[in-house]
Amino acid sequence: MLVEQSGITRRELFTLTAAAVAAAALKPQQVAAQSAFELPELGYAYDALEPHIDARTMEIHHSKHHAGYTTKLNAALAGHEELQALSIEQLLADLARLPSEIQTAVRNNGGGYANHNLFWTVIAPGGSGAEYISPTLQAALVAAFGNHDQFVAEFSTAAATLFGSGWAWLVSDGAGGLSVQATSNQDTPLMVGQTPILGLDVWEHAYYLNYQNRRSDYIAAFFQIIHWGEVSRRYAASMG
Ligand code: MN
Questions:
Q1: Diameter of the chain measured on Cα atoms
Q2: The whole model's pTM is what?
Q3: H or E element in which residue 206 lies
């Protein structure tokens, strides 16, 4: 009745329905192609980490640098639907399996995508204080480094002495063990089967506006805003 009242014939209705079905059938492919990886929202405002990390640095770092890695990662994966179905951790864990022409792009931009995803979550306004380290992570830190201050010293040295651009990490081996590591560019311990649970970006884009050449001051500030609750959660999740 409604169809007749609105003047749409059965033939037109069929055509409209067929078009709707075709559109619905196309939709999953379009979604997969357009949003393989998405830039995550920060859990806080750009100015929330001041004075340790300034708002302008956070805005550029997130909305330009991280967004750029995301866009370029998706561009590298365009046309590779089977790869778009994988997690970023799966992609980075076995780069040699990828088509050779996109290995470098996925290593650089996929690494950048994953590394910043982690970074935004392990820092938080005001940090959470070392008292929020879980008992199991605390025990593992003591086993690996002797005490908390020694861990801070080793991590800070790794971050300060890394030549050029890269990251300092606290890494879980999946069997309880922890180590401090450093990687160049956007490389990540995920590439060698290990799980970073805390990371510090020491590319100049992460600190230069506020700290210029004073990387050691930036490293010290980082320890004021570590979200130890999230690091503890990641440590627990890293155990296979
Ligand atoms: Mn960065």
A1: 82
A2: 0.85
A3: none
- The answer on pLDDT for 28 being more than 50 is no
CA–chain centroid gap for 64, Å, is: 14
Q: How far is the CA of 19 from the centre of ligand 1 (A)?
A: 45
Share of the chain above pLDDT 90, in %: 82
Task: Give residues whose Cβ lies within 5 Å of ion ligand 1.
Answer: 201, 203, 206
Ligand 1 mean position, distance from CA 84 (Å): 23
**Cα of 78 from ligand 1 centre, angstroms:** 24
DSSP label at residue 110: I
| pLDDT of 41 over the 90 cut | yes
| pLDDT, mean of residues 6-13 | 41
Query: Rounded to the nearest whole angstrom, what is the distance from the C-alpha of residue 168 to the centroid of ligand 1?
Result: 12
Which domains does the chain carry? Answer: 52-240 (3.55.40.20)
Measure Cα distances from 80 to 18, 33, 110 in Å: 29, 9, 14
User: What pLDDT, in 10s, does the model give residues 195-217?
Assistant: 999 999 999 999 999 999 999 99
User: How much is the mean pLDDT over the chain?
Assistant: 89
Q: How far is the CA of 68 from the centre of ligand 1 (A)?
A: 10
Phi/psi at 91 (5° precision):
-65, -45
Going from the Cα of 235 to the center of ligand 1, the distance in angstroms, rounded, reads 22
Task: Of 229, 201, 209, give the one whose Cα is nearest residue 129.
Answer: 229
Provide the pLDDT for residue 122.
98
109 CA to centre of ligand 1 in angstroms: 11
116 CA to centre of ligand 1 in angstroms: 6
Between CA 198 and CA 177 the distance in angstroms is 14
